[in-house]
Amino acid sequence: MKLLHKTTLYLLLAALPIALVGMYGLNAFIHRDMVHEIDELLANELTQVQEQLRKHPPDLADLPGWDPNIRITLAPLFRQSAPVYSDSVVTDLEKKESSVVRMLRATYSVGNRPYQIELQQSYLEFDEIARTLSVGVIVCFLVVLALMVLADILVTRRIWQPFYGIIRQLQQYRIEGPEESIFPASDVHEFKLLSQSLDDMSRRIRRQYAQQKQFTDNASHEMQTPLSVLSFELDLLQQSEGLSEADLNRIQQSQQAIHRLSALNKSLLLLAKIDNHQFAHHEVINLVELLDQLLAGYSDYAAHQGMTFNRLFTQQPNRPMNRQLAEILFSNLIKNAIRHGDANSSIFIQLSSTTFMITNQGEPLPFPQEQLFGRFVRNQALSQSTGLGLALVKEIAEQYGMRVHYSYLANHRRHLFQVDF
Amino acid sequence: MKILLIEDEPSLLVAMRHYLEGEHYNVSTASNFQTASVKAHDYQYDCVVVDITLPDGSGLAIVKELKAAHSQAGIIIVSAKNSLDDKLSGLDLGADDYLTKPFHLPELNARIRSVLRRRQHEGEMQLEFGSITIVPNRKQVLVASQPVELTIKEYELLLFLATNKNRLLSKSVIVEHVWGDYMDGIDSHDFLYTHVRNLRRKLLDAGSPDYITTRYGAGYIFSVGE
Fold first, then answer.
1. Which ipTM was obtained for this model?
2. What angle separates helix B105-119 from helix B10-22, to the nearest 10 degrees?
3. Which of A361, B53, B89, B206 is the most exposed place for a label (fewest CB within 10 A)?
4. A143-201 pLDDT, tens per residue?
5. Which residue of B has its CA nearest to A384?
6. Is the peptide bond before B136 cis (omega within 30 degrees of 0)?
7. CB contact under 8 A, B217 and A249
8. With contacts defined as CB-CB under 8 Å, which chain A residues touch B191?
């Protein structure tokens, strides 16, 4: 739900009880005021009636009866009392309607003749006015509110424009992108602040990212130099006269350790570069050609293990990929199958337009299947393994939106790797 | 054969020089861009081995300078970066080969030899090793003027061993040279044994003495024995 919709909704939800309570409150307030006014009116009228009675004392038989609102009767003797206001219901006989009236009862003596005066005033019109007034006010309130909300919606849309601009910019933000992104400026202080903070943050992050990248780059390159020194020295040492077989063996071991360290270093650098999307140069790769070339490259190695490749290429898919990455992806899978396959077994390789599959015979994994594509997960029995080969496979596949599956077919004792394009 | 080595790491420079002098090259060295540029300009070399990253400039600039001066020297670029971009731009500039650190000295020697062979006259060049003759242009091997049928791998194996004659070459170095990057991280180099055995048998069958000695557990030496 948009912020705008949410505020509008809450505003309207709050307005409803306010309107209801307000209407009743207003009605009650007006009513109380009216009663007060009516009482004053009645008191005035009483004074006038008393005046009239005093100036023109009527005959006993001819007490004025022409105004239904004024009733003057003879009161029982000596019952003088203070004027009393009360509400009562009268029934109009002609209209057959009953209505609430305000009534003032008072006694008044002219000479020694006591009169009882009853004055009444209907609430009817006043109540109507009160109702109309309070409903009118509330309707006005609601109309004003609706207009405010409408205006708010229009204004908010304009005001939040820079905010959405910032969000769009953030969505497109790529830390490795070529140019610094500038967040849109605004005349609203808060947005300006947000924009500036994001600009600062982006600049800081980019700088750190660049430093980090530079560091990874430099670290791995710097590492190759001492490795080269070691390797060269061992190359020279190996040429010395009078080395025993054990000495030569030690040199071999050291060379292999150097080689492994260097391979690790290269793989880590490669992973970092893939993570950073530093591989451009995409070309259309004919996978059949690539696989044929790779399988030819590995045929001597496989043949030595007594392994044979069984290939079934049903289609000739072309994929847009970086050639180096494509080679690493497929050669790592092939190498993996040869290294972990049983001697004198066969490796099946299948390629269709949507999948690549490779299976090799072998014992089940010595570790949980979920870890297979993790970094530094390896079969300890193989000393030269870096434990990064399959991590690279996964990383490269993800880069190109491909999915890599692994399963173990227990009844065939076969490991199956499948890449879905 | 005059070689110029351009490398800023002193210990690498010393080791390379030592090995290459053992191969009877006339070796000059430079450890920074300035010296390298002057030497490359003032003298004629048959081959220049140049490291891309120098403290005061790029090795690629030296390649450019050499090419601008129409130098006939073969150029091998050495880099700590295994970066395809560097490799391509280096080769585009006219370098003959590209080596990524760390590499082995016998490999460097083989690359230099190969570059020098390609630089030499177009004519049929023959390399004589005892009774074995190698004709690189045709990738052919002759024993007593009779061609020996070798597979491509066996040919490359023989050429590499012969190029580094009298040197003990470990199996991993040989495998890396002949099979290239494919064998990165392969645990066992035992499969090399089959290929060496086949090569030996073919050469022996053709009437050549056995020049290949096995140093058990270490590798192979090719020596003609004066």
1. 0.89
2. 60
3. B89
4. 998 898 888 888 888 888 888 888 888 888 877 666 666 777 778 888 888 888 888 88
5. B187
6. no
7. yes
8. 300-301, 303-305
